[in-house]
Structure formats: C-alpha cells, structure tokens
Amino acid sequence: MKENSKFDKKSLKLVQGKNTNFGELAKDCVAFANANGGVISIGIEDDSNLPDSNQVISETLPEKIIKRINELTFNVAVRTEIVVAENGGQYVNLHIFPSHVSIASTTKGQYLIRDYDSSRVLLPDELSRLISDRPSYNWETKVTLNTHWTKADEQKLREFMVDVRSSDRVSDFVKEKTEEEILSYYQMIDDSGLLTNLGVLWLGKAEQRARLLYSPIVQYIKYDAKEEKVDKKVWDDYRYNPKELIEAIWEAIPEWKEFNEVSEGLWRKNVPAYDEKVVRELLCNAIVHRPYTTRGDIFIKLYPDHMTITNPGLLPIGVTVNNILQKTEKRNLHLAKVFYDLHLMESEGTGYDMVYETLLTAGKNKPVVEEGEDYVEVSVERNIITKDASRVCDFISDHYKISRKNFITLGIILQHKTISAIDLTNELQLPHGERLRSWVESLLTNGIVESRGTGKGVKYSINPDFVAKSKVQFTTSLKTIEPYRLKALIKEDLRFHPDSLLAEIGRRLPDVDFGELERMTREMAKNGEIKANGGRRYRKYALP
C-alpha cells in the first residue's frame, strides 16, 4: 500500500534498538491527529509492502509506543495492534484518532499536519485557521436544543427512513436497524435520544431549525447584462431540510433548464446551459462543507454568461484553489455521509472530478474557484468554447472504456489543441509530475491522444489517425501542425514579409502555438534556414 494522507510506513528501527527516534514518530502522530487521523504501520520499510517474514514483535512494544507518544505529545489519542502479514512477519499498526476538539502538538510546541504522503509544519496563518475552524468539526454531534427525537417532524423522519432503506449505498445491516438505531448510526441523536444539531437540521420542524445557529439560508439573485438585479428569491423560512432545500432551489430557477445547441452539418446536440449534475453537486458542497459555526448566507448569482455560488467560510485547512481537484477534506463528516448514502452527492474525492468531467466534455471551461477573506466562490460558465469536445467525447463514450480521469485530461487537451506535459500537470493540479502517467496512459494506449517530444518537452494533442478513423468532424488547428509544415509556413510568411520580428510573425499566424513558433524560428536561424539580424530583443528574421 502506498503512503498517503491517511497511511504511513515506518521502519522498526524507529522504535527499538540503539537508534530509536520517538520524536519523529510523535511528529507524524500530531500531523495525523490534526488532519483526519490515520494509521502508521511500524515494521515495514518504505520500499516494501510487507515486513520481513521472520520479524517478530515483542508483546511489550505496543505499550511502549503508546507510553512514549503520550509523553511526547498533547491532544493525541492512539491505539496499537500487532498484525501478522500474509508472509508470516509481524508489524505494529499504530492508529491515530483525529483531534476534532483541540489542536494536537508535540511537547516541544510543534504543530504539524498531514499533507498528501508527508507531514509538514503548519504555517502561522494555517495554525490560526485551524484553531478557528476546530469548533465546526464537532458541530454536527452537539446537542443544543434538548429536543427528543420523537418530537421531530414526523413526515421528515418517515421520508428519511424510506430514503435510507431504499438506498443501494446503505448496507442491509444498517437497513435492518430500528428507527432509533438508524438515527444513532447517522449521529442524529445522542445516547439519551436527543436530537443533535445534525438531527435538527435534517429532521427538525421549521421552528426547531430556526433556533439552530446558522442553519443555512440561501439567496438567489439574477443580473442582466448591465449587472443590475432583475430577480431575487430567498429561502429563509427554515421549512426545508438540506435535501428538500436543494430540490426547491433547483425547481425555482428556470434558467438552469435552458440549453445551448451545438451543431455541425447534420449533427445536433442540446447541451445544458447549466448541467443539473453540476448544479446539484455545487449546491451540495455549499451545504455540506460550509462551517456551521460561521454566520453567512449561501448566495447564488446568475449572470447572462455565468453563474456563481458563494459560501460563507474558507476552504478546509490543506485545501486551496490550486489543489481542490486532487485534495479532499471534509468538515462535516456525518452530514457528508448522509448526502452520499442518499445519492445526493458524489463520494469523497470525486465531486469535483465529476464537475470537471461534465463541463470539459461538454466543451466548457473548468470551474473557477476563488477564496476570499471569509468566503469561497465557485464560478461556472454558460457558454461552450469548443464544439469538438461534445462530438469527440460522445464517440469515445460509445466505443471506448476510459476513466473519468481520462475524460478530464482529454477535455483539457481538446481545449488547448496541443499542451505541454508541464502545463497539463498544472491544469490537473497534480502535486508530482510523475503522476501524470495515469491520467494520459489510457488515452495514448487507445490511440486517442498522441505525444511528441521527450522529457519536459513532451506535448499532447488529439491523434489525427483517431479523428480520421472515427469520422468525427474535428476543427483543424495550426496548433497541432507538424514541425516540417511549420517550417514551410514560417518560410512562406517571411517570403511575403521579410525582416519581421517574431511578434509580428506570431500575429500573422495566430493559430500557431507561440512557444512552438519561437522555438522553431530560433532553430531555423541556428541551422541557417533563415537569417536573423539585430539584438535579442529586436531581432528580425528573413529568408537567406
């Protein structure tokens, strides 16, 4: 198993022998505790998935580990177990529980957090955010109204039970529980049967939900081309639970059900102006991932060419606008589970994947996420920027079996026509360049995409052989022009326009990738195929 945000491997030498280093282990425990918890397998080397087949763990070692971790950390809870691997070797699994109430640290005052597959020190602003964010992590399970579950809204309770017992995401073991046991399983009641904040939010009556601090209020505002308000709706009467609220919002805004027509010859397709899956997922994110200890309404703003959904609060610690496609952190774990189990949203880590795939394969831009001082805003464009995406992706869906990751990658390549490996890595928000392989490999193997160049100079574009074979009408672009043809194009341009600056050539060949044009022009000058006059800044090119 690979190391990730919830799993790490450590050598047995770290906790026994002459060179023990419990301080380093303590740091990792603090990092996991400040994130979402995790497991450290002690006794497995970094380059292996199994312990040594002859390795035996002393019965006293697990207790020693717990004792030393307790001595070296604050607010860290752990447990240990000795595990026998499939090869007969033993190792210790150290389970670290998430610290949702307080901030974990080492006794030396070090604050860390788990980030992907490593532990890093928290920056001062991150520590400040983590401290202010902590109360929101246990908001769901708190009891503030002292209302017994039998006093909940009967219709909402009945509908919730029907939804749970009819969902294919809920196990038969859970479905067979009594009503009270199901509510306890979803953390909607405490041990005394009192409704938690989550229980009030989902099952409470309107007056109960109104007494709940920061129960979600949603405002919809429509603007015209001059950005003047032309319509407004507000959901602030607390009669809806989250599921009903999303349904009410979707049904109340007719503009979301409009279409853009994509046509090319006899080919016709209606692409939703705002795809229902995208809208619902973003609304779910706004309700599920907002901090419920922060005051503020959810705003939906509709403009002629795009819409925005603005949520109070900031992104969870560790998530930024530059890694939101790859990084997943949940504030309200139990609310998220209810949404997932009832098919209201995608599973953990796939929500934004689905949004990206839906938009890019429809020929639209990817969503734009902005984080302000006290809000997060997501923008989605209405218009289609490339017709090729719908035609190509429809054909691929019918004839190939590729993953969501591949469709996202393909959508980005189709928009750029040709894109370097470095730029593609940035577009996909990948933390390590080598991970790009899993995003493009199936496209290359199936001949849908081709690559040119080596190393950092690799560029990806749609494969012309695939386009010819599929008979998909594909817009021709000079961005994918072959090098020898680009050379001929540059010579032809200089034949009519001698002594031209590179920028002037670029303006006359707007469809050619400027970076590729610059590289080719300099290479031709170096080889004597064209001549260059002047300094580097004002260098002009002409035929020899």
Question: What does this protein structure show overall?
Answer:
The protein is of the alpha+beta class and 544 residues long. It has four domains: 7-122, Methyltransferase, Cobalt-precorrin-4 Transmethylase, Domain 2, CATH 3.30.950; 149-210, no CATH class; 223-381, Heat Shock Protein 90 (2-Layer Sandwich); 480-542, Arc Repressor Mutant, subunit A, CATH 1.10.10. It has 20 helices and 22 strands. The model has no long low-confidence stretch (mean pLDDT 89).
Number of domains: 4
**Which band does the percent of strand residues land in?**
15-25%
Main-sheet strand order equals 10-9-13-14-16-15
Structural class: alpha+beta
Q: Biggest β-sheet: count, sense, barrel?
A: 6 strands, mixed
Molecular shape: globular
* Number of strand segments: 22
What's the overall average pLDDT, rounded?
89
Q: Helix fraction?
A: 25-40%
State the CATH class of the largest domain: Alpha Beta
Furnish the topology, listing elements before pairings.
Elements lengths: L6 E4 L11 H13 L3 E5 L18 H12 E2 L3 E7 L5 E7 L8 E2 L5 E4 L2 E4 L2 H14 L16 H13 L5 H4 L3 H7 L11 H7 L2 H5 L7 E6 L5 E7 L6 H11 L6 E6 L2 E6 L3 H13 L9 E5 L3 E7 L20 H9 L9 H11 L6 E4 L3 E7 L6 H12 L4 H13 L1 E3 H7 L9 H9 L3 E4 L6 E4 L1 H7 L12 H14 L3 E2 H7 L5 H13 L4 E3 L6 E3 L2
Parallel strand pairs: 1-2, 9-13
Antiparallel strand pairs: 2-5, 3-6, 4-5, 7-8, 9-10, 11-12, 13-14, 14-16, 15-16, 17-19, 18-19, 20-22, 21-22
